[in-house]
Amino acid sequence: MIDPALWREARALVESQGLRFEPDLDDLVGLYEHDRLIGCGARQGYVLKMLALEPEHQGTSALGDLITQLLASARRAGHDTVFIYTTPQAAPSFQAMNFRLLVAQGAVALLEHGPGLEAYLADHAREMKPGRNGAIVLNANPFTLGHQHLVEEAAHRCDQLYLFVVREDRSVFPFAVREALVREGTAHLPNVTVLDTSRYAVSAGTFPSYFLKRLEEASRLQMDLDLRLFAQRLAPPFQVVTRYVGQEPHCPTTAAYNRRMSEILAEHAIHWVEIPRIEASGGAISATRVRKALLRGDFSALESLVPPTTLRFLASPQGRPIVERLRTSQEATP
Amino acid sequence: MTIRHKATAGTMQSSDAMITVEPSDSLEILIESTVRKQFEPLIREQVEATLARLGVTTGRIHISDRGALDYALSARVETAIQRAHQE
Q1: What's the pLDDT at A269?
Q2: ipTM confidence
Q3: CATH number of the domain that B15 lies in?
Q4: B12 and A71: CB-CB below 8 Å?
Q5: How many CB atoms lie within 10 A of CB A116?
């Protein structure tokens, strides 16, 4: 689908500019002068990346040509809003093209073009209530008694509690199902509002690292960027002063994320509260345990791990293909 | 004319504007421009005048402006509308 010659030449151009060629992409655009590639740019979903130009074409109309094509490509794929992750030094070039800076953190800046965050916040304006509000960001793959406990504990401690369900679909339970189970499992709480994160949760999946000198920085930068985006762009409009998380006894990545979260939130005067996990027959309840029980077909174990609303779904005809997918996938991460 | 489907016109080049139009129940004009503070009212006026001339009463019109002059803005808007009107 992508011309092999373009692929080869683009890789050479990207690497000649000290960037890393990331092969994970949906579209690649090349800019030629007399049959020679002088610029390229890529798109993966709604994220633009790997924009590279030969030095003599930098600061010219070449970047505009690439961006025009990439925006058209994104539009054809159904994306009105696009993101670009780039170096802070390159940010002004994109701002001149009406890209808005969302958040910057040391080596990386995130910008967007299109209706974006403003449209997202306008869509949720009716759900913004004044008060000392709280937030939980959760994937809920699927929604367990552990999640329910966290939500109930948090809801008692704040005026309005916002549950931001991670929109990105990289889990065995599709977003639509995860969100529905969160809603059903929290319907009894009057001060809870369920929302999706839209594009505004920076995941390892969408975070490109093509411009990083050291690949091992990627994970930490992605975490920091995600946390700052939350603190600077999501918390203030919803008047969130506290973020709640469940204590993480097992997963080192989540534990590291939680620690970093407390640091970054403190910088933005946002409180951070860790709620201990509830236990069931020898261990903290987690979505991982639930998926393991599902794989075993152990519905009696599931009864002590998930609320009736989730159990009902798992046993339903809609639930069965998901259980099958779980069986065939190698998914072990929470 | 009627906006029957999504269409675009223009580029991200300096002195140009990129226009995307799509069907909508009401008329919404969203303007993005690095000179928004100084020129938004004038840009809006130009776009509204062009839409009125073409008989467009509903649609979501998104403008990413890079300093386009009146005639350029008008031409791009008209092209986008014509493309959106075509079956």
Answers
A1: 94
A2: 0.84
A3: 3.30.230.10
A4: yes
A5: 21
B8/A72 CB distance under 8 A: yes
Domains of chain A (ranges; CATH) run: 4-82 (3.40.630.30), 121-276 (3.40.50.620)
- Alpha carbon distances (Å) from A287 to A135, A148, A167, A171, A181: 20, 12, 17, 11, 13
Task: For residue A303, give the 3-state DSSP assignment.
Answer: helix
Does residue B66 contact residue B12 with C-beta atoms inside 8 Å? yes
Quick: pLDDT tens for A274-300.
999 888 877 888 888 899 998 888 889
Which of B8, B20, B66 is facing A97, going by the closest CB pair? B66
Looking at beta carbons, which pairs linking A32-36 to residues 24 or more positions away fall under 8 Å?
Answer: A33/A57
> Which candidate, B10, B56, B48, B25, places its Cα nearest to that of A68?
B10
Q: Could you tell me what percent of chain A has a pLDDT over 70?
A: 99
Within-domain flag for B1: no
The number of domains in chain B is: 1
CA distance B3 to chain A (A): 17
Q: CB pairs below 8 Å between A and B: how many?
A: 40
Instruction: Tell me if residue B25 falls in helix, strand or coil.
Output: coil
* Terminal alpha carbon distance of chain A: 34
Containing domain of residue B79, as a range? 7-85
Q: Which residue of B has its CA nearest to A67?
A: B12
In degrees rounded to 5, what are phi and psi of residue A36?
A: -110, 135
The pTM (predicted TM-score) of the whole model is 0.90
The answer to whether the CB atoms of A64 and B18 lie below 8 A apart is no
